[in-house]
Structure to design on (500 residues):
């Protein structure tokens, strides 16, 4: 089995995060940052790394520190039976030197490649031997180098012209190295959730190298995270999601403590937002791995805006942040302990950024009315995850292959109910055998689905009556549902696709 797995990629693509998440698995160890392998990095950081790298230090010195760090890391011992994860593999050294030479010496791309070869020549033999002991994975922002550079720069708070040029060359050369086979595998990150990329990385290690790491169980789970100030209805919402929609109801504090205990962390609440979000994801992962049949989970209560933002990056579309709100007077009236208790708890939550979660929530639910309104809002949110909104595929009536009489009927029906000037329906769809090209004259019915609102029903009835004679004895199965019924999944069973 390969002893060292190296992750390479441009800045801000998530190399360090992926290694940190993976290193929590048994049998895998993090090699640590590259600057731990040469004492000269301390001076570089003290002088300002960017200034040292791009201006004050001689380019030969920069290359020497880089090359010696890579070689020292490669020469360090790997614990027996362990897989070492290295942040930036040997091909990354080539890319870094090419980009540095291009920017510092204002060289063309081809000239920078030649210059990098000259700068690295004294180390080439040792680097080649070290590269043979690595199994390299390249993480890319995008399939195109220019798009990748733009994504890398978009995640920086401040970008200088020199650094932007460096990123463009770095991305271009990494893509070139991938095309020439310098990496064993390439993963395009794009806008995917961090844990989706982690799952793909684990699959590579397991299937290609035999490293015994499980997949990410959270990939198959929808997580509803409930936030809001005191007495806004988070517990009520969690209970309804559990009883009505089958969500497993979990407390964030419990999940954080489980993860902290597993990692030997004494005070999980002393961690920064990134680390706390990762602990929460780890707690969720542990639960979902042990309950592989559970595909829907709710967590409560979100109180930290920063941690919530980091959790969104980790889970992506697998997470739905629901913020519940109600007036201060109503929340105070709901409290058994009285208004003073609500004010005190609100103060603590606001100090942690609980109110700011509203701005980034996927859904903001007004819980100031009757409880049934809250339930219906939760129904709609849940249904949107079970049946995501999709754009219907338009089909011409002749392409359905129906008998000419029925094709003429549908054409006339479209004219009556889908007039752009005053449409009665927002969707008209043929379903059943007629939609699948399996209509059999004399046996099949004509099944049609329409999405229309209640105030259009009289006009719809008139249109259907006006055209009934054109059916020629064929039985018409006509289903009408409203847009709200579609949104909450309140459809006849024959129209539903089962949730996996």
């Amino acid at each position: 089995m390969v002893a060292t797995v190296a992750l390479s990629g441009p800045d801000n693509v998530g190399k360090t995060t992926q290694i940190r998440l993976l290193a929590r698995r048994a049998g895998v160890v993090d090699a640590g940052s590259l600057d731990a392998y040469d004492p000269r990095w301390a001076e570089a950081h003290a002088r300002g790394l960017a200034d040292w790298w791009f201006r004050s230090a001689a380019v030969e010195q920069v290359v020497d520190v880089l090359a010696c760090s890579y070689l020292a890391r490669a020469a360090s011992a790997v614990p027996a039976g362990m897989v070492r994860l290295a942040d930036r593999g040997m091909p990354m050294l080539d890319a870094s030197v090419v980009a540095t030479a291009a920017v510092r010496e204002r060289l063309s791309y081809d000239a920078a490649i030649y210059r990098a070869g000259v700068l690295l020549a004294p180390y080439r033999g040792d680097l080649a031997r070290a590269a043979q002991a690595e199994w390299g994975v390249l993480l890319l922002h995008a399939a195109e180098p220019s798009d990748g550079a733009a994504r890398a720069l978009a995640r920086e708070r401040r970008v200088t012209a020199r650094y932007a040029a460096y990123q463009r060359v770095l991305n271009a050369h990494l893509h070139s190295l991938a095309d020439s086979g310098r990496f064993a595998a390439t993963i395009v990150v794009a806008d995917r959730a961090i844990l989706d990329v982690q799952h793909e990385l684990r699959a590579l290690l397991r299937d290609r190298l035999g490293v015994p790491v499980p997949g990410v169980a959270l990939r198959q789970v929808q997580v509803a995270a409930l936030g809001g100030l005191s007495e806004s209805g988070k517990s009520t919402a969690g209970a309804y999601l559990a009883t009505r929609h089958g969500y497993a109801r979990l407390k964030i504090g419990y999940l954080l403590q489980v993860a902290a205990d597993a990692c030997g962390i004494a005070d999980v609440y002393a961690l920064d937002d990134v680390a706390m979000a990762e602990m929460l994801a780890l707690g969720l992962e542990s639960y979902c791995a042990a309950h592989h049949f559970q595909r829907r989970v709710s967590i409560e209560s979100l109180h930290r805006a920063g941690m919530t933002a980091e959790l969104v990056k980790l889970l992506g579309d697998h997470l739905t942040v629901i913020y519940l709100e109600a007036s201060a007077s109503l929340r105070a009236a709901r409290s058994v302990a009285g208004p003073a208790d609500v004010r005190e708890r609100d103060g603590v939550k606001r100090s942690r950024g609980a109110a700011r979660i509203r701005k980034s929530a996927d859904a903001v639910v007004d819980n100031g009315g009757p409880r049934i309104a809250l339930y219906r809002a939760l129904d709609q949110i849940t249904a949107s995850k079970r049946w995501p909104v999709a754009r219907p595929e338009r089909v011409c009536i002749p392409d359905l292959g129906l008998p000419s009489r029925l094709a003429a009927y549908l054409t006339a029906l479209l004219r009556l109910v889908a007039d752009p000037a005053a449409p009665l329906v927002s969707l008209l769809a043929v379903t059943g055998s007629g939609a699948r090209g399996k209509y059999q004259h004399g046996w099949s019915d004509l099944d049609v689905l329409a999405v229309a609102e209640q105030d259009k029903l009289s006009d719809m009835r008139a249109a259907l009556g006006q055209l009934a004679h054109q059916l020629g004895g064929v039985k018409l199965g006509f289903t009408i549902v409203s847009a709200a019924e579609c949104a909450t999944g309140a459809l006849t069973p024959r129209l539903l696709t089962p949730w996996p």
In short: The chain has 21 helices and 13 strands. The first helix runs from residue 15 to 22. Residues 397-495 form a domain with the GMP Synthetase; Chain A, domain 3 fold (CATH 3.30.300).
